[in-house]
Design a protein that fits this description.
This protein is an alpha/beta fold. It has a single domain, classed as Rossmann fold, CATH 3.40.50. Helices cover 41% and strands 22% of the residues. The chain contains nine helices and eight strands. Strands 1, 2, 3, 4, 5, 6, 7 and 8 form an eight-stranded mixed β-sheet that branches. Strand 2, helix 4 and strand 3 form a beta-alpha-beta unit. Helix 2 packs across helix 3 and helix 8 packs antiparallel against helix 9. The longest helix has 20 residues.
Length: 258
Amino acid sequence: MSNEYKSIHEFDFNLICEYFSGVERQGPGSPEVTLKALSFVDNLTNESRIADIGCGTGGQTMVLARHAPGQITGIDLFPTFIDLFNLNAGKLNLQDRVKGIVGSMDNLPFQNEELDLIWSEGAIYNIGFERGLNEWRKFLKTGGCIAVSEASWFTEERPSEIDEFWKDAYPEIDTIPNKVAQMQKAGYISVATFILPENCWTEHFYTPQIMAQEAFLKKYEGNKTAEEFIAGERHEALLYYRYKEYYGYVFYIGKKIK
């Protein structure tokens, strides 16, 4: 595989944050998929406590808040994302139930068995799927649910170009049965698993970035780092269109057992 393109992890956090602040979603997904995953979660009430970990600017969080009862806390490492998150909550008059705070997913500010639902769309990879499932479990009440979307292989074998790209970007990528087994080993009953449809990547993630990329390049004209970053994003999108039958995001919903 060519080393021409840098991984997103090689770039400055501030640059990444600025770029993704200009688009509605920071990862593949859609309102329809958020609601589908939510349909597998039961027993939520007005007293329920929900955490959206790695919430970004809150696109999916606001969908949750409009369709689920309870208090929702969004947590993200980037202050700019949280500022936009709270601004978005205010625009929708959700500020009494929805609050974003700056924090790290490996040092969450919750008490043991405080939460009824942990949500994380396209973000658990930052800590690792297995580690996140294991470390976050203590914050859930018995019978509480976790719902995360995670990059996964659809096949046992795939072309070397996409295999090497993902193993470099996220070594924990694995097949769906192996991810379900990891969830069960961490102490959850697997409630539901489903693949996100292609439009979560195309219509809701990559297409909106086209204009954002042009604006970003115009702002940083002649900036080699910015140009390399956008080149990497475009390469990732190209690989998806070329190899989308081999991988994608999968929603995993589990329930904590004793």
